[in-house]
# Entry
Amino acid sequence: MQAEVLIVGGGLGGVAAALAALRAGRSVVLTEEYDWLGGQLTSQAVPPDEHSWVEQFGVTASYRRLRNGIRDYYRAYYPLTDRARQATTLNPGAGHVSRLCHEPQVAVAVLEAMLAPYRGAGRLRLLQPYLPVGADTDGDRVTGVTLAHRDNGEQVHVVAPYVLDATETGELLPLTGTEYVTGFESCGETGEPSAPDEAQPTNMQAFSVCFAVDHVDGDHTIDRPARYDFWRAYQPPFWGDRMLSFRSPNPRTLEISERSFTPNPDDDPWLVMADQRLSPGDGNLWTFRRIAARRNFLPGSYDSDICLVNWPMIDYFEQPLIDAPDPAHHIAAARELSLSVLYWLQTEAPRADGGTGFPGLRLRGDVTGTGGISTGGDVTHSGLAQAPYIRESRRIRAEYTVVEQDLSLAVRGDKGAVSYADAVGVGMYRIDLHPSTGGDNYVDVASCPFEIPLGALIPRRVENLLPAGKNIGTTHITNGSYRLHPVEWNVGEVAGLLADFCLARRVTPRAVRYTPGLLAEFQNRLADEGVELRWPDIAGY
# Structure
């Protein structure tokens, strides 16, 4: 196959990159390993983690179209109450983590609709489910990528003048010989206050396999997982209790805190304040990442709320996933951890009435696209999310690497984050690192609203490969801020527009950054496309 732009990986960054290049009139080949496009928003089943001003500013225009499309889909097809239907800022799940918690398949439908005109016109070809297995290079350029069908191994070779790596773990970087880094950099290299004295390349953030549950009458207990006894007794030294408990460190203070769990609390969805400036929202695990609040729908439509489980106890940090000899083994272990958490919830978790276990919890594989509603332990496939939720990728050795002191509120104070001359977008999230494979506890640092520098999207050597996701030039620490949904989308969109810009002017991405006239022209193009480059005067958290 041939295209002007090849995008490997159909997560949020990959889809945003494809839409940007397609809007510019380019031919695109987009690939995706899993059955759903959308990555962390869909196949990984993670409701969008967004900043406090998302309804007013701080995201790209196309990301806002995605959010509006999700709400419009609910209004068009779901039995909403009149009050919910009329709400401008409808939050279907009334979850505390985000102002827009929703079922993942709705996002799939909207993303597919956004891409549909280009597929009909023949300018977008989607290879799904395919993953990269090889690459060809000529000096400092990537000349082609070989992709294999996930299930039958059939191979396709694609050539394109620009190749974008939008995979969840930066899979093209080792295949193309592009220089990259993993894990912790050293304080000596980055100067970061939270970095260790020596680099720790195998010390990476936990990944998680999420799942959805509701709570209805009957006994829906799954089969006891084979390694349940191991996970039931597992207690990290910093956890404060067994991992399978409602006690765990508070990410911001590291004090041991106990969370509550109350299925279907019958709360008023209109009283939910989803604002992470005020609270992380994880006090009651049921409402924390709830994706369907039954009181938003007409009586009788939903027997129960639907709760998305992405909680501390499902974090897998036994071994790193990236560059592991057998990553499939670790994914399988993480899946069994998640099933063990569910089994513990169904059989042993303490209840407020003094009893134990919530057998009414029902695994909703239909919500995650991995099976039907489970009954009595008969679960089609596993019922978990299709893909693991990856927090940390391989990261390019970039022309510019974002470091902690660029955005830390403790370092920058009222000066705000560093403003980059080559800014190509904005984002905001605390530096939020989950426990890691080196035995580290949470690292959670208040941040200033930050910018995305173009230099972080340009490899130091390779000329025509661009990162389009979490694989940009951040450190292990700043990745904690740059890894969330709207920033990944912004990065992908800029990568797609940059590929078009360079093709049209016959220049390299490096030349765009270092040539003032080209940089100004490109930034004007981004502004015309609705990409915000600067923040108003607001404070971090």
